[in-house]
Amino acid sequence: MRGIRLAGCLAALGVLGLWAAQHYLRADGTAANQARLAVPVRTAIAEARPLPVFVRGIGHVVPENQVQVRSRVDGQIERVFYVEGQEVAAGDPLIEIDPRPYKAALAQAEGQLAQHQAQLASAKADQERSRSLLEKGFASRQTFDQQTAAAGQLAAAIATDQGAVDAARLNLSFTTLRAPIAGRVGKRLVDAGNIVHASDTAALVEIVQRHPIAVLFTVPQGELSAIREGQKTGDVAVEAWSEDESGRLAAGKLTLIGNEIDPATGTIELKAGFDNRDDALWPGQFVNARVITRMRENALAVPEAAVQPGPQGRFVYVVDGQSVVHVRPVKVGPPVPGAAVIEEGISAGDRVVIDQQDQLAPEAPVRVIGDEKSPAQRTAGTAS
């Protein structure tokens, strides 16, 4: 009997151990499943601080100066001094046209001038002798008047000759085409040996200035009052951003507000100037412009990626202390560079999800794999 009771106790202990093992595995599997179901997300902290308010515009980069150099004389090209894509300074030689015909014309004009100057000297001497003889009664008034007229004619001829000399010297200077502005030359359009004429319409070389440079862009007419209000406090800062708005290219200031609104589009054209010392802007490049109209104090901002559209309006996912997300409807204010301003719905310090929102649902578990720099930190210093 004692053996039977011992065997029963052992059997009972075995059943209890099996039940405990099954219960532990089931609990452990649930925890593993929960960990496996948690969506990995990146987050950002909502922060309140001063942020710039801006107006968006789409435009393109234009050079402050763009010159097409043409010949002002006829002749054969002797040399081309520049290299394609070269940076040139104002006054640098670009092209030389055969100067020999113009040197000959200058020498001829100078010779004619010297001849008339010698004749004038002789005529003035004759005039002085006639004056002396006239005073002594040995010459007639007619002779003196003739000598005076001859000297005057020669003086007029000398003035004409001087003009011819100046014109010949000017034409000779035109045989060397020089850069009228500093900038970058384009592709080579002519080669040595080509014959060019002053009447040709085609340019021989084109120069584009990039320092400084400008951006022409348009904004809706409804934004004009905010921009003009910003001008009352000083220069209005303008930022040029890449076409996909992935990064800021340059910071400058507003230089022009157009003198009329386009009635067809309801937009007005603006122009902003940039130093562009790092060549971040290139002529013809499409950019997005941001006109900083004012600074908004204590703006609660999150990354733009945190705000999602929904059937009832825009919302964000907020992560609580237990790594569970909750849907919070939000009211979004005027845009600022790289962020969304939240006027209602969340508070400073809330952690919002900035990616993988399509994988989330209300009350879903998440696993935070990284925090993004706060929008306030990212936008600090963007206003010039």
Q: What is the level-2 CATH architecture name of the largest domain?
A: Beta Barrel
CATH topology (fold) name of the largest domain: Elongation Factor Tu (Ef-tu), domain 3
Number of separate helices: 5
Give the overall average pLDDT: 85
Beta-strand content: 25-35%
- Read across the widest sheet, the strand sequence of neighbours is 2-11-14-13-12-15
- Helical proportion? 25-40%
- List segments where confidence is low: pLDDT < 50 over at least 5 consecutive residues: 6-29, 379-384
CATH hierarchy, class of the largest domain: Mainly Beta
Order of helices and strands: HEEEEEEHHEEEEEHEEEEEEEEEEH
Structural domain count: 4
Shape verdict: elongated
Provide the gyration radius in Å.
42 Å
Q: What is the H level of CATH, i.e. the homologous superfamily of the largest domain?
A: Efflux pump adaptor protein, beta barrel domain
Structure characterization notes:
By secondary structure, the protein is an alpha+beta fold. It folds into four domains: 94 residues, conserved putative lor/sdh protein from methanococcus maripaludis s2 fold (Beta Barrel); 97 residues, Elongation Factor Tu (Ef-tu), domain 3, CATH 2.40.30.170; 60 residues, RNA polymerase II/Efflux pump adaptor protein, barrel-sandwich hybrid domain (OB fold (Dihydrolipoamide Acetyltransferase, E2P), Beta Barrel), CATH 2.40.50.100; 76 residues, Helix Hairpins. Helices cover 31% and strands 34% of the residues. It is built from five helices and 21 strands. A hairpin with a 5-residue loop joins strand 16 and strand 17. The C terminus is likely disordered.
